[in-house]
Amino acid sequence: MTAVLPAHLADGLAAVLRGERVSWPSLGLEPAELLAVCAEEDLTGLVHHQLGNLPDLGWPQSFRDELTREARAGAARELLRRRELVTVLDALAAREIHPILLKGTPLAYTVYESPSLRPRSDTDLLISREQTDTVRRVMTGIGYSATNYCDGEFLFCQFELGKDDAFGVGHAFDFHWKISTQSAFADLLSYDELSADATPVPALGAHARTAGAVHALLLACVHPVMHHRNVERLVWIYDIHLLAARLSRAEFDRLAELAVRKGVAAICAHELALARSRLGTPVPDEVIAALAAPGREAERSASYLDPARRWNNELLSNVRGLPRWTDRLRLLKEVAFPAPGYMLRAYGLDGAAFGSGLLPALYVHRGVRGLWKVLRNRK
């Protein structure tokens, strides 16, 4: 999980993203340290872009030169990723599979000024559950193979496939058949719901489409909460900022109605208020008030806003969120006993003649190590 930035640094970088003048000494870092922070926080391209729109701030030339180099390298990688995206979507469409692009990739091509300003480690796509086998065959046919991803019907509701291209750039595609691994959010928006309101992404070819404006903003609001224990990352806040800035008042009203109906109003109120505070996002007061009305804290999903939330809280919420005891027991089994193939790959024994015989010991080792992390509050 990404470490929380010190308050003064988060404030300074947020001011840069707002297009404000920020003195170098106020950041309190050496050039190499700030470069590392920008890379870790996926802000390299954005900071470079914003600094280019400002007069000379007196920032070290060594920092600006290296930032420019990294931003240009990111733009070059994006050209390769775009080409691969189009290839993958074309191959899937040839088998009548039309996924919905989610999160960073479609945002990079729809709301950001340049796609390279929104880095991401993979591309997330939503498909129908019955399409999973066909997707695996299509992707394998164009050179992709499964990464060592712990699977499970309830544990992850997704699978990842990846490959490296001829230039050494890695491409990873994460196929979901539910929006979230957390049962409280898994059925927040279905494939059919998103598909009915999906919009094209022309820059990614004839077969690219993503969530409509209201759905995209709802997903951007719940993403940090449902998957990352509400960690505040400026790049995610900037996603919300750009999406919200494009909404009409009627669309904001639709968002508020949808969030209340789906039981995520408190989360949306929190994230939109955060974007408004950090980046000056134009969110109507009436919308925030409607989302934060008395009683919203009683929403089941509102517990995910608790800053003290830990791994055990996530697991307990997941178990409670499943309607049947058989499903709950299956989830616990998937947590405690991942598939043998995953275990062998995780321990570097995939293909080893003696690997299967070591599985009992590997499960014990994994369990003890996990328990130790829980006891040390590292999980």
Keywords:
379 residues, two-stranded antiparallel sheet, single chain, five-stranded mixed sheet
For the residues shown, what is the average pLDDT? Answer: 87
Largest sheet: 5 strands, mixed
Q: End-to-end span in angstroms?
A: 10 Å
Return the structural class.
Answer: alpha+beta
Q: What is the helix/strand order? A: HHHHHEHEHEEEHEEHHHHHHHHH
The number of distinct helices, counting runs of at least 4 residues, comes to: 17
Q: Which bin fits the share of residues in helices?
A: 40-55%
Q: Low-confidence parts, pLDDT < 50 over ≥5 residues? A: none
Shape: globular
Strand line-up across the major sheet: 1-2-5-4-3
Describe it for me?
Helix content is 54%, strand content 7%. It is α+β, with helices and mostly antiparallel strands. The strands form two sheets. It has a five-stranded mixed sheet with strand order 1-2-5-4-3. Strands 6-7 form a two-stranded antiparallel ribbon. Among the domains are: 96-211, no CATH class; 212-305; 337-379.
